[in-house]
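Deliverable D4.2, example record:
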Amino acid sequence: MTTAAVIGIGDISGNHLQAIVDHPAIDLVAVCDIVPQRAEAAATQWGVPGFTDVDTMLREAHPDVVHITLPHNLHASAAIAALKAGCHVLTEKPIAESYGAGAELARVARESGRTLGVCFQNRYNDSSQAMRRLVDDRTYGRVLSARASVWWHRDASYYQASPWRATWREAGGGVLINQTIHTIDLLCWLLGAPESVSGMAANLTHSGITEVEDTATITMQHPGGVGSVYFATNCHGENAPVEIELVFESATVRLQDGQLLAATPDGDVEIVANDLEAEGERSYWGASHARLIADFYAHLSAEKPFWIDADAALVSLGVLRDTYIASGLVPADGR
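Output generated by the structure prediction step:
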């Protein structure tokens, strides 16, 4: 039985905790949060010891795997502590609040001999897996271009509930790093790490609420001359489903409302995949956390490298860095 602990009891921790306790080969042994009330409540709910200090938890519970669901600026430090304690780590995105901190974490992970995985769970969506097969198999020929967009909603109450989300120092950014880095990751995974990035980000409507950006547009050039265009905003009136479109030589494949459709020039439309529908208020997050977590542990038991590692996560973080620098939002050294 592999033992696991979760550090950080916030919105996303429930996805990890539920996936752990539902897995027959994982034993939850501890939870940890700096806020005593949260640690105590989670400990009671899940029936395990609760801690308020990471080092104490690592020393006393000594889990095989640590799940990190903390604010962005704490991801790298907690992950490094766990790796140095001999634990494998599965961290929420992003791996750090800045590219520089993420690169340092990647270095430590390589030297530790432990596995570091990153939660880009949307790669496990049925639509994402289907798109990857179409790209790899060239079912409709080569990809010529792509676009993606995320129209979501965040208001003052969202930032008031967790003030760290509103600052560059703690969040490392806004709509790009906090909400829509998943979609950038998908574009880069499907089309290849970009060879050039041109983007602009700004705080258009949330200037009285947060200091980070709420809207951004990015163009990327991927290997083979494939261009992509990306748009993201937190200023929409609701949380709309993510849209992705791949233009192939003989068809256009479009993700809409969780359904992947392939349209050919003669007017035929085929349903390629349907994503598993999530439930609840945050259903637009998707439903693939459990799939990723199960696969992460399967790689551990098979002693194989996990495919979404720190280096993979640095690709999308690099896109954000370039966009923030071009927009004058972070220093030219990219932090």
